[in-house]
Each structure stands twice: as C-alpha cells, then as structure tokens.
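Key result, reporting period 2: structure in, sequence out.
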C-alpha cells in the first residue's frame, strides 16, 4: 500500500475532494490533473473538462460583448455563452444560452475555434474546453437577463484587446478572429 502513500498529493485549493466521498478516507490519491482514486474502496472520479460555448456575435460589423453581473469575473467583459447541458450539442447549447441571456433566436452559427479555460465557481475550479462560434445578428437585443448580465456593449473587434475580460479564452478568441479576418 506504500505506493499509494507516495502518490498522495496533500489537499490543496485546486482539489475538489479533501477525502473520499464514499468511505471518507483522507489519503485520496490525486494525479494533480484530473483523476481522483481511493485505494481503500476503489472510488474513482475524473474531473474532465466541461464543454462550454461562446459566441463571437457581430452586429453591423461591431462585436457584441456582455459585462458580467456575477462572479467569476463580475463587472468584467465576456463573450455571451455558457455550459453545454448533458445530452445537448454545442450548437444547441449556444443557441439556448444566447436566447436565455439576450432574448435572441440564433438560427445559424459557424464554428471558429476552441480554447482551454477554467471556471472558478464557489470554490470549485471547473476545467473547460471553450468552443467558440461566429454569429451574425440583424437586431440588437432590447433586453437581457439582468441576473447574469450587467450591460451589453458593442465595440470594434480590434479595440477589444485593450479591454478587461473575465476569461483569457474569450480575449484570445477575439484576438485570433481579428487577426484571421484582417480587422485591425
Ligand atoms: Zn474510499
């Protein structure tokens, strides 16, 4: 059993379990990446990245950004989007999130790129794989979900690099978009 002891990493803030949820063993094995394993009862959990979606939404060649109303990243800018639900495609998840947040019915979205990210919510750090899609809208949203969104703004895509974003993945995706489309 000594080998397990050698592999145990002391509990730290990046871990989501301090002990085994099944048998309460304190020396839960963690690979410091994603795998939790209990050598006592065989409890195994992989904290795999969650699929998240975000839209580079263009309105009259301007980029639509939201100012987040809650943490993580409260008061900072973000691309509209959210987590994909179980049983849902990335496209449907993005359309649902945009409808919930901005009241917009998106009919088509085009895949652009993906980036890794982390989402720190109430002490649990969720690794995510952010799938970014390009969307063009014809009508600016008249209202939005106030619990989630403090404000909705339009910026020239090239000027977004100077703004403060909640997550590096959103900013990086816009940077790639500006570069690829020669929008600077
Ligand atoms: Zn256990």
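The corresponding designed sequence is given below.
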């Amino acid at each position: 059993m000594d080998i397990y002891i050698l592999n145990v990493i002391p509990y730290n803030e990046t871990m989501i379990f301090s002990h085994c949820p099944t048998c309460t063993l304190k020396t839960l094995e963690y690979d410091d990446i994603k795998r939790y394993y209990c050598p006592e009862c065989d409890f195994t959990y992989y904290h795999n990245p969650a699929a998240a979606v975000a839209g580079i939404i263009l309105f009259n060649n301007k980029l639509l950004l939201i100012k987040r109303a809650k943490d993580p990243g409260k008061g900072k800018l973000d691309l509209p989007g959210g987590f994909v639900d179980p049983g849902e495609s990335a496209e449907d998840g993005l359309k649902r999130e945009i409808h919930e947040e901005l009241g917009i019915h998106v009919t088509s979205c085009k895949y652009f790129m993906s980036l890794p990210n982390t989402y720190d919510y109430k002490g649990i750090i969720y690794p995510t794989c952010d799938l970014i899609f390009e969307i063009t809208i014809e009508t600016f949203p008249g209202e939005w979900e106030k619990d989630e969104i403090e404000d909705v703004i339009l910026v020239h895509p090239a000027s977004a690099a100077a703004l403060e974003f909640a997550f590096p993945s959103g900013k990086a995706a816009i940077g790639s978009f500006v570069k690829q489309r020669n929008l600077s």
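The CA atoms of residues 5 and 27 lie 7 Å apart. Residues 1-48 form one domain. This case is discussed further under Risks and Mitigation.
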